[in-house]
Amino acid sequence: MRELIVLGTASQVPTRTRNHNGYLLRWDGEGLLFDPGEGTQRQMIHAGVAASSITRICLTHVHGDHCFGLPGVLARMAVDGVAHPVHLHFPASGEEVVRALVGLAGPGIDLRLVPHGAPGEVADGLAVVPLHHRVETYGYRLTEPDGRTLVPERLAAAGLSGPAVGRLQREGRVGAVRLEDVSVPRPGQRFALVMDTAPCPGAEELAEGTDLLVTECTFADEDADLAAAYRHLTAGQAGALAGRGAARTLVLTHFSARYPDTTGLAAQARARAGRATVLAAADLDRVALPRRRAVGAGRG
Ligand SMILES: [Zn+2]
């Protein structure tokens, strides 16, 4: 199961309808919690997310709207008796803030601090890329390795079925039949999260070829001067990231409280988003990862 559960969509100031940030990505057996702002613990209850489903917590930066929910979430995990290790990723320059927040939560879970100070892979398939904000900020990208999709007609023509198919997938060939003869390439899925940043090469890199791209969308195009002053994206800039990167689905979030209605922001993003499906997220939205595409099979 792969889906994004939006726990909050507010930037600096929450509103009656928008909690501070918080995003849970269910990715097979993993549960990655990104940027838990204030109130994340309670939003998890509204969303039906168990604290035990979190295996990894990823902070883009240590501004309050992206991390002040951390003590509550950690304390709740301890109350619930979470036994599995939990990795906490964050920019190294934010370590003092992170240690203070973790200290507030107290002990009780097997929490492992994993600071990063350079781009690259921080866990299997999980990479960080620097962004351009007022403090050290990194976006995250999760990449599934490319694989192959079996074509049932070709399997049948090759006379393979049952346990032989499993052997073919494990060993790459069964007798004269090679895996590539009966399958087509399937690009791995890609998810990326681009939080507080001005337009920058890192944001472009993160957006490239994503199935699901989550970006901040703090300001409307007409407030581009504010976006530039505070190093944030306008709706149009967020859309352009998806368009240039050929993202399949763009989820906009981290809205300024000055826009009670996000319809206009979505329209501004859509105008520059190419073929991407553009959604302005609302609290508690769930977005499924778009189905994987197999190359050249017309199926899968
Ligand atoms: Zn923010």
Automatic annotation (TrEMBL):
- Keywords for this protein: Endonuclease, Hydrolase, Metal-binding, Nuclease, tRNA processing, Zinc
What reaction(s) does this enzyme catalyze? Endonucleolytic cleavage of RNA, removing extra 3' nucleotides from tRNA precursor, generating 3' termini of tRNAs. A 3'-hydroxy group is left at the tRNA terminus and a 5'-phosphoryl group is left at the trailer molecule
- The answer to keyword tRNA processing applying to this record is yes
Keyword Ribonucleoprotein found = no
Fetch the Gene3D superfamilies from UniProt. Ribonuclease Z/Hydroxyacylglutathione hydrolase-like
Q: Which cofactor does it need?
A: Zn(2+)
From the Swiss-Prot or TrEMBL record, what is one GO molecular function term? Answer: zinc ion binding
Coiled-coil stretches are none
- Family matches, as Pfam families: Lactamase_B
So which domain of life are we looking at?
A: Bacteria
What is the E.C. number? 3.1.26.11
Binding positions for Zn(2+) 1 per the UniProt entry: 61, 63, 133, 196
Paste the cofactor note. Answer: Binds 2 Zn(2+) ions.
**Residues that, per the record, bind Zn(2+) 2:** 65-66, 196, 254
* Active site (catalytic residues): 65
Classification via InterPro entries: Metallo-B-lactamas, RibonucZ/Hydroxyglut_hydro, RNase_Z/BN
Q: Where is the Metallo-beta-lactamase domain?
A: 18-136
Q: What does this protein do?
A: Zinc phosphodiesterase, which displays some tRNA 3'-processing endonuclease activity. Probably involved in tRNA maturation, by removing a 3'-trailer from precursor tRNA.
Q: Relate the assembly described in the record.
A: Homodimer.
Q: Which family does it belong to?
A: Belongs to the RNase Z family.
**UniProt cross-references to NCBIfam families, sorted A to Z:** PRK00055.2-3
Q: Protein name, please?
A: Ribonuclease Z
Q: Which organism is it from?
A: Georgenia ruanii
List the taxonomic lineage.
Bacteria, Bacillati, Actinomycetota, Actinomycetes, Micrococcales
The gene coding this protein = rnz
